[in-house]
Write a structure and sequence with these properties.
This protein is an alpha/beta fold. Among the domains are: about 180 residues, Rossmann fold (3-Layer(aba) Sandwich); about 110 residues, Sandwich (Immunoglobulin-like), CATH 2.60.40. It has 17 helices and 28 strands. The strands form eight sheets. Strands 1-2-3-4-5-8 form a six-stranded parallel β-sheet. The protein has a six-stranded mixed β-sheet with strand order 9-18-17-16-10-11, covered by helices on one side. A five-stranded mixed β-sheet has the order 20-28-27-22-23. Helix 14 packs across helix 17. The longest helix has 17 residues. It is globular, with a radius of gyration of 26 Å. It starts with 8 loop residues before the first helix and ends with a strand. The structure holds beta-D-glucopyranose. The site of beta-D-glucopyranose has 9 residues, from loops.
Length: about 700
Amino acid sequence: MIVPHIIDTAKLNEAINKYKIGSILNVANGPEGPTFNREKWKSVINTVQDYAANSSSGIPVIYGVDAIHGATYTSNSTLFPQEIGLAASWNLSLAKNMGEVTAYETRASGIPWNFSPVLDLGRTPIWSRFFETLGEDVYLTKKMGAAIVEGYQGGSKIDEKHVAACLKHYVGYGSPRSGRDRTPALIPQRTMEELHLPPFEEAIKKGALTVMINSGEVNGIPGHKNKYLITDVLKNKWGFAGFTVSDWEDFIMLHKVAQTDSSVKQGIASAINAGVDMSMVPNNPEYKKYCKLLIELVNEGAVSKDRINDAVRRILRVKHHLNLFEQPTVNYSSYTDFGSKKHIAKAYRAAAESVTLLKNTDNILPLNKNARIMVIGPSANSLSCLNGAWTHTWQGVEEKYHNNHPTIKEAIENEIGEISYFKGSIMSMENGDEVDLPSQDLKAAVNACKNHDVAIVCLGELPSTERPGDIYSLDMALEQRNIIKQLSKTGIPIVLVLVEGRPKIINDIEPLSAAVLQAYLPGDQGGRAVSDILFGKVNPSGKLPYTYPRHNGVVMHYDHKQSELINGNTWQNDFFNPQWEFAHGLSYTTFEYSELSLNKKNLYSNDKDSIVVSVSITNTGKREGKESVQLYINDHYATISPSLKKLIAFDKISLLPSEKKTLTFSIRNEDLMFYGADNTWQSEEGSFSVIIKDLKSTFNLKND
Ligand code: BGC
């Protein structure tokens, strides 16, 4: 790549005028980093659109980037928590805020198209893109995903403060059987219908304009060849009128990697005929070959003109929705809120509501500001660790591109003054394994324990995504666990802060820690959010959006079945024993649930009937706090073996000390449906439990 990055106008001219390229993506990924300031983006986008405007068609280019937790490729933008953290907030308005601010700042950079949100389910914790998901539950993903799309797109006509969303990666990409990126998934039709498709369908209902296709394969069929999913389901059944885009070079990969197509040319035909409307052929000169081959395919009748016209119409429709024909570039001076305090406050709130208190023995937290504090650990002083991948660069590892936001260590210093700080270990990723190195200062830290009241130990993982993030084991790196093991010998109370995109196994160090705080990848405001929770300025209210595994080899989800509980060692139903359960999260106050009641005992299986559930929650502690109240259903017996719990509703509320609120939810027939043996959605008569926290009640579903 050329450094500094400049547009080669001869190549741009050739691409637009000779090859009629209609879309451009991304940024270069080189040693100087791809992050541009707004001035630079202005010159890039204006140049591109000038060439497009002066081409024979005059059709504007649609430019896209991965602005997945803020305008990640524009310097001084506002960075939110990655999706896994956002989901832990259980707060739909914060998800919408993330969408709005990201859209605003992406558009402020002249870019109208965002490759986000990820709606793949996070049910494979070792997968390198787990952090990009909204967690393991379909309902939470559906609701959060739709809120993000609303934030990105605004209304039906997208104005210059909003962008087109791109739902990805349609569909099943997040469940590779091996846990490694872009490897085969095996997904039964029922699981596809019940878990993987609904978040996409919901976002399409919200008007999402574009969809990116799964780079892997499901049941032997590569995402890019799956006509059933792309054309029959997405376009025909759901009525999606926007366009689908391939993932990186995936037309080519049908030949080179999936080996379902004996030539690149055949791969192009397969993908377009399956319903992919735009090819992400990101490199020069490969795209030229693609253009030539596609023309040949049309001339030979292997791809019909109708299919091409359909794809073109869809792409033009999205460009029209974005108003690109009237206004291909934006008025850069009208974005006075870019990187503003107002935006930062929203990102801070999202981070503060996502951080999850997993353990707090004897209420060691919040800490007293006068305590003598030691901060140690490789994620304590790193903005890269707080932000994760897709931040300033693809893998997000380089510290040098970050703005001046405080790390955890710095935020603690800002709060209480000078502290002792040690690295403890050095993060390192080699040949796909996290082989952290010992740090010289661990000994000094152990010696210093006697002069300190508490050690805040910040562990985690280096940012990574896609194939570079494939790892061999979920175990927290040995050298990092060693920090806690060594410190604990001195008897100093340990507060473990996890800064991680996937749940690393910590079953040996959790018992040595008095408190555990899960920060996820909270973004630029994460340092402040963690510090404010440690010192009690903020009362934590995040709840895990996934089941935190205790063992590397046991990955179970909250919606497991009775048969998964039997333990051959105890002959009890106690096999489900995660480190922490889905939706676990403590507060500095306490909540009491009471008065669960149903307005009737029978629900009729038609579209109109509903049962109203009410429940009261009282803040029984001494400080104001937020609580996400969740309603689960358990179908007692069903033709298809039922899961023990299924989330069907939630609401996050705020309560003052002693305050009591009564919430109501409604249950309808559709909430009780499953995908039956005959491959149709159905409900069955019978009894069900409503579960809210530790309260339970039953009702019956009856046919009319
Ligand atoms: C990723 C997508 C991303 C695209 C463009 C691909 O490798 O799988 O999620 O949007 O690159 O950067």
